[in-house]
Amino acid sequence: MTTAAHASLQTRCSYCDTVLAVTAKQLQSDSGLLACSDCGKVFNAAWNLIDQVANPAQLAQPIDTVERSTVVPTPDLRPFKSRRVTGAGVRPEGGEAQPAPSATSEPPVWESFDVMLGGRSEPRLNATNPTEALTARPRQANTPTEGSGWAWPLAGILVACLALFTQVRFGLLEEIASVASARPALNALCRYTDCELPQTLTGPTIVVTHTSIDLHRHLPKALIVRIHLQNRSHSAQDYPALELTLNGRSGKVLGRRSYLPREFSVVDESVRIGGDRSAVVTLILAQPDPAASGFSARVVRS
Questions:
Q1: Global pTM?
Q2: Pairing with 234, which of 19, 45, 242, 275 sits 20 to 30 Å away (CA)?
Q3: Is 273 helix (H, G, I), strand (E, B) or coil?
Q4: What are residue 51's DSSP bridge partners?
């Protein structure tokens, strides 16, 4: 039995239908493009490979006797018949009407074909705008929006404002209230936050609110003077020195004397007047001037 010859790589020019020998190296280089030695045009040799294997139906005959012939398309020489276009489709004269193509019929897979010699057709890529694929920008990964970059700075500003409000409202209210220019703003703050604005400290922290005088029970000529002191601050303060002045009926000063804390029974220096608290200092005048009709007291050091 005669065996077929080994298959060789051959390609056919898609323009002039010339059969050319090609190697695997030529198919791998230049994306399979090859210039035809006959017509000189460049075609894709990988797309037009042919296999020179004998027809299996003719294997009983010697391979040398197999005639190799090229297929030549036979033109249609039949006489032209007129056709009429009707609503049912295209109908030739004396024949049945052929149904018209429906709108739902599937389009061909390849939108365009190049018909070559021998009735063969080679598919071509259909690109409406070839430069569009070259100029198109690659898709970028999802990036965060511009507004998200302001999230952390805004959060930091809010935290700073909250910390400043807490410090002013609970920690530094008294110190800031002592500044006259800051009191209007603090007044508005306390109106909305339900806080109490401290009183303005003009003058000494400890002041004399009122005084009283009584006769001594055991000493007929002695007088008991009680001086009421008020601490206007929120912190404890030491007892101050007091100045007592005796006045006559005409307002003339008859005598004046200063008393230190240890002279009105404040021996321990740790004893203090609490914040927003009042205290009473008692002085005993043994032999006051008989012409004295009144007296006044004031704080000389606080």
A1: 0.37
A2: 242
A3: strand
A4: 9
